[in-house]
Amino acid sequence: MAGVDLSKIAVREAPRPKPKRFYKTATVGPSGHGGPPYRVLLDGKPVLTPAKKTLETDNRALAENIAIEWDAQVSHIDPETMPLTRLLSTLIDRVGPDRAAIIAELLKFVDADLLCYRAAHPADLVHRQTMVWQPVLDWVDAMCGAAHVTVTGILPREQPPEVHRAMRAAIESLTAPALTAFQAAAGLTSSLVLSLALVRGRLSAEEVFAAAVLDETYQMERWGDDAEAAARRAHISNDLKGIGRFIALTKGAST
């Protein structure tokens, strides 16, 4: 059976015209004899990932929620409203076959974590960063058994070798779905610490968003907002909420 090619709509790329909805129904069907893995079907045809693999999962609840995303599309298909589809596609196409490479790439950012670079002034921003960021950093340090170094300013500072080893161990321990969520959150927040707090359940998606845009929020409160900045924050917030839903749906799953 020919599949429905997702390659042009499942991955976040440069803006492009949204394709028209070309199907009537979005459902979930088994790939074998009534059991998992479960495929997302459009008019009975399986959806394909960008790498031309079948969009399927052993998690029926996840498959059903992805089908709901497809069913919710109206005249055109908007990938921005389909975070679960994008995340499962990423898991199948990239995290599964390229796990080691993805972890290696993530570890390059241990020294650049947002939470480790603090403002020197004004005092109220310094206080806000300390109150919001430090408890999360303390939690990760206690969990990993290594202490991150924080600095004021933006000049790069290498973390101690034990922090690199601890973060590697923490990331390598993640299941495939958790690693998929982790790498997506890291790209949005510029923080491995916040991303780890999200996938481990220390922070909610809303709390991670607030921490990630803390500096921007402070500046907005002082100088006002603009439409472009507001749109960017809304995009980050919506994507983090989608990641949070993916985490909740895949909690305890290994693949």
Written account of the structure:
Helices cover 52% and strands 9% of the residues. It has ten helices and seven strands. The strands form two sheets. Strands 1, 2, 3, 4 and 5 form a five-stranded mixed beta sheet that branches. The longest helix is centred in the C-terminal third of the chain and has 24 residues, at 227-250. It is globular, with a radius of gyration of 20 Å. It starts with a strand and ends in a 5-residue tail after the last helix.
* Major sheet characteristics: 5 strands, mixed
What is the percentage of strand-forming residues?
5-15%
Q: Between the first and last Cα atoms, what is the distance in angstroms?
A: 25 Å
What structural class do helix, strand and pairing data support?
alpha/beta
Shape category: globular
What's the count of strands? 7
Element string (H = helix, E = strand): EEEEEHHHEHEHHHHHH
- How many helical stretches? 10
Helix content: 40-55%
Model regions low in confidence, pLDDT < 50 over at least 5 residues: 4-13
Mean pLDDT: 91
| Global Rg | 20 Å
Layout of helices and strands, plus pairs?
Elements: E1 4-5, E2 26-30, E3 38-42, E4 45-48, E5 56-57, H1 60-71, H2 83-95, H3 99-107, E6 117-118, H4 123-144, E7 151-152, H5 161-172, H6 176-189, H7 192-199, H8 205-212, H9 214-223, H10 227-250
Parallel strand pairs: 1-4, 6-7
Antiparallel strand pairs: 2-3, 3-4, 3-5
Task: Describe the structure concisely for a colleague.
This protein is of the alpha/beta class and 255 residues long.
